[in-house]
Amino acid sequence: MHFYTTFIHNVIHRYCGHFFITYKEVKFMLVDGKQYRTIWPNKALSEVTIIDQTYLPFEFKLRPLRSLNEVVEAIKKMRVRGAPLIGVAAAYGMAIALMKNSTDKYLIEAKKLLIQSRPTAVNLAWAVNFVFDKLKKEPIDTRISLAWRLANELADQDVRNNLRIGELGLKLIQKVNKPQINILTHCNAGWLATIDYGTALSPIYKAFREGLNIHVWVDETRPRNQGTSLTAWELNQENIPHTIITDSAGGLLMQRGDVDLVLVGADRISIDGNVCNKIGTYLKALAAKQSKIPFYVAAPTSTIDPNYMGQNNTFDIECRDEDEVLKVKGLDAKNNITEVKIGYSSAYNPAFDITPSNFVGKIICEKGIYNPRDIKKVLK
Ligand code: MRU
Question: DSSP letter at 45?
Fold first, then answer.
């Protein structure tokens, strides 16, 4: 069923592009033909529903979040993940928290718990602080409605930003003058990492819609396999040609000329263009530089940290549980999701690394395409 809808969708794109422009722009994030965002509030504005990403690619499951604790748990366990999405989820978390108690004391407590839920992506603290600063000036009895409005606005803004990143990123992809364009991406910076469209995948979706012959190399992204489980799942939903590769294969493919550009997202960018992103990104940037392949980063303004400059990062690089390295999730013979142990040593699991600005070709932001060392201009 899904394959069929995607096929029709692609045929219509290709042959009736102009006629179909509204459909293309508005109804993109389809799962089995139905449009979804990654998070949305109920009509009564009392809870949110998320796509629980811990079940993908095996099951598409929705999950309601009804309390501050449930939102914090969902971020920590990575039921929602990706820098822009955890920011918006945390903003909704503030709204949900206030429904229990709208006092200043509880507002401060909610802010603390949400910001501590994951340390590296700056979008989380940015969104929580944005909502907090507005709420603390608001009288207690109107705080709840304002909090829901602000969270909804952040969600809508994310969608607009990503559409713009898609349009701008397309220009860079179009510069590759080849019959087939091979793009390598790491982790998941697609619509599952945002509210819709994605950051690094947004230009890829846009290019595919414009009829470019795209093929995506998807890094599996150990240990949590966001590439295999999420990016490949997204690309399958849209019928975009792609191939999963091990995290160490990219260097060889670049040497052989099988990669035309690398396009990744970011969790935090310094004002002088250093890029913190999923562990393994730096190695891809090193290989890309050696092979003279463009290395591009796509991220909204909220990923730029005005307090981060040079090598002095004052934030924590998240170090996650060793079990993520020592166990692998999959389906058993009866198609139940199961985990198997693959090692008995201790393991070390840093979740992000930093790519210095001199390895970054361009940063694509909703406000424009920047040389990394000029990215501070975005904040003005
Ligand atoms: O640990 P995750 O899955 O939340 O990490 C996500 C990434 O590193 C993404 O590449 C990054 O957030 C960009 S998301 C648009």
Answer: S
Compute the distance from residue 190 Cα to the ligand 1 centre, in Å. Answer: 9
**Structure-token pair, residue 130:** 């944005």
Which residues are registered as beta bridge partners of 370? 363
What stretches of 192-283 adopt beta strand conformation (E)? 214-219, 242-245, 261-264, 268-269, 275-278
Strands of the sheet containing 48-51, edge to edge, are: 39-41, 48-51, 62-65
pTM beyond 0.85 = yes
pLDDT score recorded for residue 380: 82
Give the nearest ligand 1 atom to 187 CA.
10
Q: Say yes or no to pLDDT of 183 above 80.
A: yes
List the catalytic residue out of 267, 272, 305, 323. 267
Give the residue from 85, 304, 321 showing the smallest Cα distance to 193: 85
223 in ligand 1 pocket by Cβ < 6 Å? no
Phi, psi of 329 (to 5 degrees): -95, 145
Residue 355's CB: how many other CB atoms inside 10 A?
A: 26
Cα–Cα distance, 380 to 377 (Å, whole number): 5
Dist. CA 73–CA 277, nearest whole Å: 22
Is 267 considered catalytic here?
Answer: yes
Q: Produce one character per residue of 41-56: b if its CB has 16 or more CB atoms within 10 Å, e if not.
A: beeebebbbbbbbbbb
